[in-house]
Design a protein that fits this description.
alpha/beta, binds 1,3-dihydroxyacetonephosphate, four-stranded parallel sheet, 301 residues
């Protein structure tokens, strides 16, 4: 039996549904029931009926699914697949900022540990951050952990005061403005599509800045035939599926998330077979981390 057949069989036996992020390997995206950006996947995780969720992504995604849907069994193909940026903020600075600014909102990118979420007022993803930050009554925003997404949001919401954190995504910051310019010289008609985890210099070159879904939707709706893609290369799978006649170029050489790429079909099949790698969390932490996630779903919908 092929691994794909095995997964389909185990899915039925375990009453499982497979969620996958656009950055995982193509063959994993191909077998998933739901593929999408972080906001879409968190909405699916919160509402899905199947008893088991196999989350093909990195740790914070599985954790968020468990927080939002605690009665479900959430399993991960590889527990070592973790997003380094999710850890790049510290509690002391959060406490310090809360002391300094009376009306502070701690806005936490969903790419964060459950522990960081427990200290935050609201979560955001790259597709809803602008909407949510604008909707907050607070004037002072401490944006964690991603400095680049924070700076992008600040550039679009100039009426608020932002404090930035120094977290970053090593995949997106490896995309250099000079390489994007070179790609544009080589393909002058191409539109430049940028994820907001990229640096400000790269975002300033963009024809469009948005989440992975936003990038896919923009390219699909655009009249242009060529695009320079400034995000993780996994999006090329869906971009090409939806746009077989269009051409997509990468701007850098390292647009590859080693953690997302740890997810393989074999590991997905093993996790389903053994019901191993379950995401567990104490109730106290789960309840605290749930608050900013629920607030995101409420303000972002
Ligand atoms: P989105 O799919 O929400 O754009 O997130 C990008 C990302 O880095 C996920 O790890
Ligand atoms: Fe984290 Fe960047 Fe990988 Fe996304 S692409 S999981 S932000 S390291």
């Amino acid at each position: 039996m092929s691994t794909i057949d095995k997964i389909q069989e185990l899915k039925k036996q375990r009453n499982a549904v497979i969620l996958a992020h656009y950055y995982v390997n193509d063959e994993v995206q191909a077998i998933a029931d739901y593929v999408g950006d972080s906001f879409y996947l968190s909405k699916v995780a919160a509402s899905v009926e199947a008893q088991t969720i196999l989350f093909c992504g990195v740790s914070f995604m599985g954790e968020s699914a468990k927080i939002l849907n605690p009665r479900k069994t959430v399993i991960m193909p590889d527990m070592q697949a973790d997003c380094p940026m999710a850890h790049m903020a510290d509690f002391e600075k959060i406490d310090k900022m809360r002391r300094e600014y009376e009306d502070l909102a701690v806005v936490c990118y969903i790419n964060s540990t459950a522990e960081l979420k427990t200290r935050s007022d609201v979560c955001v993803t790259s597709s809803n951050a602008l909407k949510i930050v604008r909707a907050l009554p607070n004037q002072n925003i401490y944006f964690i952990p991603d400095g680049n997404l924070g700076r992008y949001v600040a550039s679009q919401v100039p009426e608020k005061h932002f404090i930035f954190n120094d977290g970053f995504c090593h995949v997106h910051t490896s995309i250099l403005a000079e390489n994007v310019k070179k790609a544009k010289e080589a393909h002058p008609k191409a539109e430049i599509l940028v994820h907001p985890e990229c640096t400000t210099e790269v975002a300033e070159l963009a024809d469009y800045v948005g989440s992975t879904s936003g990038i896919i939707d923009f390219a699909t709706g655009s009249q242009a035939e060529e695009f320079i893609i400034c995000t993780e290369m996994g999006v090329l799978y869906e971009l090409r599926q939806k746009n077989p006649g269009k051409r997509f170029y990468l701007a850098g050489h390292e647009q590859f998330c080693p953690n997302m790429k740890r997810i393989t079909l074999e590991k997905a099949a093993d996790a389903l077979e053994n019901m191993s790698n379950t995401v567990e969390m104490e109730d106290k932490m789960r309840l605290l981390a749930n608050k900013p996630l629920e607030r995101m779903l409420e303000l972002g919908s």
